[in-house]
Structures are given as structure tokens and as C-alpha cells.
Amino acid sequence: MYKITISESVIRCNGKDGLHVEADCKVHITLNQSVIHDNAGSGIAVQPSAKGLHEAGINPSVSFEALRKAHDALKNIDSDDKNSIFQKLSEIGFTEYLSATANLTSVAEFIMTLTC
User: Fold this and answer.
1) pLDDT the model gives residue 3
2) Of 6, 60, 80, 84, which has fewest CB within 10 angstroms of its CB?
3) 99 with 112, same domain?
4) Residues 18 and 29 in one domain
5) CA distance 93 to 39
6) Which of the two residues, 115 and 87, has the higher pLDDT score?
């Protein structure tokens, strides 16, 4: 687990996310007397590393928002039902991020381990 503490800081007016963390494990972020605002992306974005995405069969160029949508879409379906997984991911346009050899069950399991 990574622990990040930011104290007495202002993070604002960034062209992307205020704070962007790539990690293949859980991340605990603590803000003490800090403000994050007016950023073009998310205030705080925690995303798997490019290596973790690639190993799961997901194109590393996938956005944090697309991962969040995939996570939400897969919440209430059986992770062993490949047809349902494909249908849900297709509905939100996520299949464009999958490699030709991606295992849908593994992709779903990987996405559901994310804290979005």
C-alpha cells in the first residue's frame, strides 16, 4: 500500500488531474489543510500503472473516467458470464481499449479490483 500525505498545499489550475497517481496496489491519500480545485481533469485520480493495464489486456491509454465507467457497468453482473461482460463493456465503448487476446473474465476481475 502506498500512503501519500499532502499538507498545507494548494493544487489548482492544472491542465489535467490535480493529483495523478499510478500504482498497482491500494493507495491511501490524506490531505491536511490542502485544497485541490480548478483542474481540467479529476481532483485526485488513482489509476493502475501502464504495466498492470497491459498485463490485464487493457490498452494503457485508457482514461481514468473510462475505467470508472467500466467499474460501474460491471458492478451487478456475474464475473464469469463473458457475454454479459462483453455486452456491458460494449455499451459504454470500453471494448476499444481491449487487446485482441484479452480474457474478458480476467479483465472484469481486474476492473473490479480498482477503487474508482
Assistant:
1) 95
2) 80
3) yes
4) yes
5) 25
6) 87
Sign of the torsion angle spanned by Cα atoms 80, 67, 102, 112:
negative
- DSSP letters for 38-50: S-SS-SEEEE--H
Closest CA to 6 of 16, 17, 15, 19: 19
* Same-domain status, 41 and 82: no
pLDDT in tens, 11-45: 999 898 999 898 888 889 999 999 999 999 889 98
Alpha-carbon distance of 64 to 90, in angstroms, equals: 17
Distance of CA 104 to the CA centre of its chain: 17
Q: Which residue has the higher pLDDT, 7 or 116?
A: 7
Q: Identify whether residues 20 and 67 lie together within a single domain.
A: no
Q: Is 67 exposed, middle or buried (0-12, 13-18, 19+ CB in 10 A)?
A: buried
- 109 is written with which cell numbers? 476481475
pLDDT for 116: 58
The H-or-E segment that residue 115 falls in is none
52 and 99 share one domain: yes
